[in-house]
């Protein structure tokens, strides 16, 4: 029996079913998979979902492309390139197109990828992101019209057997062929134009440009991790989220396009860390020809005698002077006392060379970013180090191991007029262990290939410790701190002759006054922090003797500046202890200058240029570089020199720049991911360098001739020195003699636009070069003599003399 309540409920259900039936009919299930795909289309890719993590090793990104092109920072760099460098027309067309469409691309991101690591991927891929698919669709035809201008289609090569167009058969020949075989009609094949060397396709609000056509599924295969999900990539990208230009290089990503190395391929043998426990392969032992003092087992019952080994058995990149029985052969004139460089033990060169030895430890990935400030450019490089290179600062110097982050104290020691300053925090014990390992491995290899016994020669560090009478790791390293600093003169970087006088703060002693009258050479100064100053005072003389400055103690001279002692060893070495630092220099005057500046409170830390320019750096760093405004001033002074090899346009551009000289600063820090290198360059300095490079790539005939004649005169001077030492037996050669000996090519003299003459008089020679046509083939005249210094000046076509200024 149906009650009234149940009746109402059934009526409600029937009503709902009647209403929902039409809608259900419209929402019927698709009858096939193809129909299902149409019903649920795949969303268009975005820049974040475009690439898989294992697609490309190199990824780059430019943010706000149009806005960047119109910015003054980029326009100022492009201006000298366009006006001075004479770039190819393709580059000019690209710049013009970018400027014309800068408004359309104002907020667009441009992404590019290169170096594919999987098959079926284009070698190069670029993606341009627009605000909507409609904007992308409007821009695509313009891009298709422009790209052939910079990537023209290749000219199709004629097919094998085809008749060149200039050698078409005559009508008579064609008639003869037709009559001979009337059934065969004459076939005329039309050559199809070659396809363009690029492909364009639009996907949603992206336009993709590649060198070849590709399938999107190859960029991002199913079930692969996206690049935006890769941990290393995200760490680098998040760190450089605001920079305009970003580049990511995945070094650890395996290249799957190359065939795998066969397992049967012979691999190099590993050398055990302890040479005494190494296993020597008989096939790799030295033969009797390699060891002339050894007899073969068949002819002698005595054990073979290994060939005499020099004290140093490590082959290093720094070539020392000739070694004989462990002593450096003097290179000076007979009877003259040896120079300090000639008395240094070859072990010192070995230690320096092994510093660059060892296995290179590359990071897993590298991120590079560039940003543009109002008055400068900032470049940042972040190394994502793996376990093997956790504390390696630079991959190509594997022995350079960082210490803890420090608030550097060396700027409080160095003079305020310091021009080039480099400081770093280093882990001396770890560096020592790395050097020991590198030297041991090299010595083991040397012993393996040059001896017939497994007993290696005495290792360099052991011999060095024997000379010192101390243990380096136990006695010397605990005395040293982490901070080390080196200073140079800007002249040492630019190659200009020294022309500096110590400041007046040296007037505190007669010796200083005497030094102040001389021009101070750009001698480097080294600062090493010490933990125990008294222990360091006792060890330094012993280390100097151990490094090979034989008889150094007899040359030592001591002078005082208040409570500071300066110890000098002739013209070889000078040192002093200031604060918690050991100050070393090859020039006693440079050491005195550091001491006097410190005592007069005129240090680099108190200099306004240094304080203002390094304010962006974190308080604690792993390294620091500071280049004073003297570098920019040297560019300005170089542009004003009449002998400078630059065009009038570049000279005018350099002189138009702001006269305010600014410093260059750099800092090295570690934020947990890996070392972060950050460089700040003044805008004017960058423009000077870009303008100079641009001008050099588009030299006029006059500038090319002047550049070539300088090189030619340098070649003549070097050839004269060789001729005098060999064939000439103390006499110089005429130009004809140099040509006859093949020391100066005659073709070189005929193509410089200058008339070159050489005059020989006794133990002297003079070479002059004057333009063949003044102000056309050359403007300056040049001169060189036995001093090998090329001099020059504008003499309106007349000869230059020894009174002219040296040229750079």
Task: Give a written overview of the molecule.
- It contains 26 helices and 25 strands.
- It has about 800 residues and is an alpha+beta fold.
- The longest helix has 25 residues.
- It has an 18-stranded antiparallel beta sheet.
- It starts with a helix and ends with a strand.
Please name the defining characteristics of this protein.
18-stranded antiparallel sheet, five-stranded antiparallel sheet, 808 residues, alpha+beta
- Helix amount: 25-40%
User: In whole angstroms, how far apart are the ends?
Assistant: 117 Å
Q: For the CA atoms, what is the radius of gyration?
A: 37 Å
Largest beta-sheet details: 18 strands, antiparallel
What is the mean pLDDT?
76
> Which descriptor suits the 3D outline?
globular
Number of strands: 25
Point out poorly predicted stretches.
12-29, 163-167, 261-345, 497-521
Oligomer: single chain
Tally of separate helices: 26
Topology of this protein?
Blueprint: H1 4-26, H2 33-39, E1 56-62, H3 65-69, H4 72-84, H5 89-100, E2 110-116, E3 124-129, H6 133-150, H7 171-180, E4 199-203, E5 206-210, H8 216-219, H9 231-239, E6 245-250, E7 323-324, E8 327-328, H10 340-343, H11 346-354, E9 365-372, E10 376-384, E11 420-425, H12 428-450, H13 460-468, H14 472-476, E12 480-488, H15 490-494, H16 510-516, E13 525-530, H17 533-546, H18 552-555, E14 556-561, E15 564-569, E16 573-578, E17 581-585, H19 588-599, H20 608-613, E18 623-627, H21 630-640, H22 648-656, E19 664-670, E20 675-682, H23 683-696, H24 701-725, H25 735-740, H26 746-750, E21 754-761, E22 764-771, E23 781-785, E24 791-793, E25 805-806
Antiparallel strand pairs: 1-2, 1-6, 2-3, 3-5, 4-5, 6-9, 7-8, 9-10, 10-20, 11-12, 11-18, 12-13, 13-17, 14-15, 15-16, 16-17, 18-19, 19-20, 21-22, 22-23, 23-24, 24-25
Helix pairs in contact: 4-23, 13-17, 21-22, 22-23
């Amino acid at each position: 029996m149906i009650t009234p309540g149940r009746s109402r409920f059934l009526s409600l259900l029937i009503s709902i079913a009647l209403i929902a039936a039409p809608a259900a009919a419209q929402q019927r299930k698709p009858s096939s998979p193809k129909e299902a795909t149409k019903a649920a289309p795949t969303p268009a890719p975005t820049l974040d979902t475009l690439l898989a993590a294992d697609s490309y090793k190199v990824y780059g990104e430019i943010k706000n492309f149009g806005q960047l092109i119109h910015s003054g920072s980029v326009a100022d760099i492009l201006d000298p390139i366009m006006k001075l460098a004479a770039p190819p027309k393709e580059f000019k067309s690209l710049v013009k197109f970018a400027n014309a469409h800068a408004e359309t691309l104002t907020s667009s991101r441009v992404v590019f990828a290169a170096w594919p690591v999987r098959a079926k991927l284009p070698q190069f891929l670029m993606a341009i992101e627009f605000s909507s698919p409609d904007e992308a669709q409007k821009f695509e035809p313009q891009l298709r019209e422009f790209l052939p201008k910079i990537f023209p289609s290749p000219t199709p090569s004629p097919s094998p057997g085809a008749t060149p167009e200039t050698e078409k058969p005559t009508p008579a020949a064609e008639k003869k062929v037709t009559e001979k075989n009337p059934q065969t009609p004459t076939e005329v094949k039309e050559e199809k134009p070659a396809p363009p060397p690029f492909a364009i396709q639009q996907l949603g609000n992206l336009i993709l440009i590649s060198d070849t056509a590709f399938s999107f599924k190859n960029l991002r295969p199913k079930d692969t991790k996206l690049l935006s999900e890769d941990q290393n990539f995200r760490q680098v990208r998040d760190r450089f989220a605001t920079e305009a230009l970003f580049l990511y290089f995945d070094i650890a990503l395996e290249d799957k396009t190359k065939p795998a190395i066969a397992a049967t391929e012979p691999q190099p043998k590993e050398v055990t860390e302890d040479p005494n426990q190494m296993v020597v392969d008989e096939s790799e032992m030295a033969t009797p020809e390699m060891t002339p003092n050894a007899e073969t087992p068949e002819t002698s019952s005595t054990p073979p005698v290994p060939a005499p080994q020099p004290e140093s058995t490590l082959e290093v990149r720094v070539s020392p002077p000739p070694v004989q029985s462990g002593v450096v052969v003097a290179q000076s004139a007979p009877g003259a006392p040896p120079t300090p460089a000639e008395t240094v033990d070859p072990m010192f060169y070995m230690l320096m060379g092994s510093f660059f030895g060892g296995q290179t430890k590359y990071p897993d990935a590298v991120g590079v970013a560039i940003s543009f400030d109002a008055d400068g450019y900032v470049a940042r490089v972040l190394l994502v180090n793996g376990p093997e290179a956790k504390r390696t600062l630079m991959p190509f110097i594997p022995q350079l191991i960082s210490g803890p982050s420090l608030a550097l104290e060396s700027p409080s020691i160095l003079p305020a007029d310091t021009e080039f300053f480099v400081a770093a925090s280093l882990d001396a014990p770890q560096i020592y262990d790395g050097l020991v390992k590198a030297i041991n491995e090299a010595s083991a290899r040397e012993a393996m290939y040059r001896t017939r016994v497994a007993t290696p020669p005495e290792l360099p560090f052991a011999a060095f410790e024997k000379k010192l009478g101390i243990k380096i790791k136990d006695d010397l390293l605990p005395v040293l701190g982490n901070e080390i600093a080196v200073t140079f003169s800007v002249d040492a970087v630019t190659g200009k002759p020294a022309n500096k006088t110590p400041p007046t703060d040296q007037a505190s002693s007669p010796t200083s006054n005497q030094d102040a009258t001389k021009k101070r050479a750009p001698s480097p100064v080294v600062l090493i922090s010490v933990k125990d100053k008294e222990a360091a005072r006792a060890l330094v003389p012993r280390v100097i003797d151990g490094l090979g400055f034989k008889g150094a103690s007899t040359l030592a001279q001591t002078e005082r500046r208040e409570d500071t002692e300066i110890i000098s060893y002739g013209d070889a070495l000078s040192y002093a202890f200031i604060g918690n630092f050991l100050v070393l220099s090859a020039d006693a005057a440079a050491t005195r200058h550091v001491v006097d500046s410190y005592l007069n409170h005129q240090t680099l830390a108190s200099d306004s240029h240094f304080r203002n320019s390094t304010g962006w750096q974190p308080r604690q760093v792993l390294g620091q570089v500071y280049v004073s405004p003297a570098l920019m001033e040297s560019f300005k002074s170089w542009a004003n020199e009449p002998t400078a090899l630059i065009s009038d346009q570049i000279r005018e551009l350099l002189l138009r720049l702001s006269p305010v000289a600014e410093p260059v600063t750099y800092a090295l820090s570690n934020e947990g991911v890996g070392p972060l290198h950050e460089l700040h360059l003044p805008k004017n300095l960058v423009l000077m360098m870009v303008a100079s490079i641009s001008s050099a790539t588009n030299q006029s005939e006059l500038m090319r001739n002047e550049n070539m004649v300088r090189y030619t005169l340098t070649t003549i001077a070097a050839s004269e020195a060789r001729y005098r030492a060999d064939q000439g037996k103390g006499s110089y050669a005429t130009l004809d003699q140099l040509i006859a000996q093949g020391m100066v090519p005659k073709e070189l003299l005929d193509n410089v636009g200058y008339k070159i003459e050489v005059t020989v008089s006794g133990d002297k020679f003079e070479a002059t070069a004057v333009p063949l046509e003044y102000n056309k083939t050359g403007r300056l005249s040049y001169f060189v003599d036995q001093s090998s210094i090329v001099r020059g000046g504008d003499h309106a076509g007349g000869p230059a003399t020894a009174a002219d200024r040296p040229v750079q």
